Amino acid sequence: MSADAGDDRSVRRSGNTFLGDAWINFKRWNLKAVRNPFVLVVSLVQPVIFLVLFTQVFGQVATGAVNRGGGGITYETYLVPAIAMQVSLAAAATSGIGLVNDIEEGMFEKVMVSPMNRTAVFLGKTAAEMVRIVVQIAIILGLGVLLGAEIATGVVGALGIVAVGILFSVWFVSLSNALAVVTRDQESTIIGANLLQFPLLFVSTAFLPLAVLPDWIRTVATYNPVTYGVDAARALILDRDVMTVVEVTAFPTTVGGVEFGAVWNTLFPALAVLVVLDLALGAVAVAAIRRASSSDVR
């Protein structure tokens, strides 16, 4: 009798379903974000400054590098996908800070002693972060168009860039939350996230094409997740295959004389890399939360 009851408790820890637990956490973190819009504004300000300053200060010089070998695109068009991914990265970097606040205020322990599913707790929080990222990418795309950027794929392409931004941010949200659980300190979490955020941006194809970068940066960029997020978004804004770190030609560039499918030669490898990274680091974040609940709270 007691063994059966124990088994039942281990299988069904909460009166809610998995989705119910995720929904509760999704609502809680969105309410927290609404009550503290400072984080939303701050994580958006820096990318907006980057977009305006980079296009105005480096626009003329960088346009020549971007169009080396042909292309005919403006630096605004080239830069907007990079800034959209930077917004995702900046928002993801602040995700762990919210978790540290929960730990310091004792809310984390309350959640951990509840019967909610740990994976659902993480997914609900991550989904709430995605809402913020969608809003921020939409603002960047709108501002980019006002500055002269052109989205060749139109509204569908813009929605695709938002989707890429979501997929791109999950791995860094996971990393930021894992850092928060391990360090349990705001300063350490911020330093750890920023220590990775800016170097990763500058040793990728975010601001200049791979061909004009030094050899060692080309090598690093090949293994840098930012390169894959930026290239996927850039392929959607330009409607062409832009990936140079990995050459994929599986998809035809023309069907019946009409250009078709070239963009998938960039999207397929980029999305595959991001999905694998999201799953791997998402598992690390969930494991860190489970370990915290079993070692410190129980």
What order do the helices and strands come in, and which of them pair?
Layout: H1 2-11, H2 18-35, H3 38-57, H4 59-66, H5 75-93, H6 95-105, H7 107-113, H8 118-147, H9 154-183, H10 186-202, H11 215-222, H12 225-238, E1 254-255, E2 258-259, H13 264-297
The radius of gyration computed from the alpha-carbon positions, rounded to a whole number of angstroms, is 21 Å
The global form is elongated
Order of helices and strands: HHHHHHHHHHHHEEH
Q: Roughly how much helix do the residues carry, as a percent range? A: over 70%
Strand content: under 5%
The class by helix and strand makeup works out as mainly alpha
Low-confidence stretches: 1-11
Strand order of the largest sheet: 1-2
Question: What is the terminal separation in angstroms?
Answer: 24 Å
Number of helices: 13
List its salient traits.
13 helices; 1% strand; 298 residues; single chain; 2 strands; mainly alpha
Structural notes for this entry:
The protein is 76% helix and 1% strand. By secondary structure, the protein is an all-alpha fold. A two-stranded antiparallel ribbon has the order 1-2. A hairpin with a 2-residue loop joins strand 1 (254-255) and strand 2 (258-259). The longest helix has 34 residues, at 264-297.
Question: Could you give a quick summary of the protein structure above?
Answer:
This protein is mainly alpha-helical. Helices cover 76% and strands 1% of the residues.
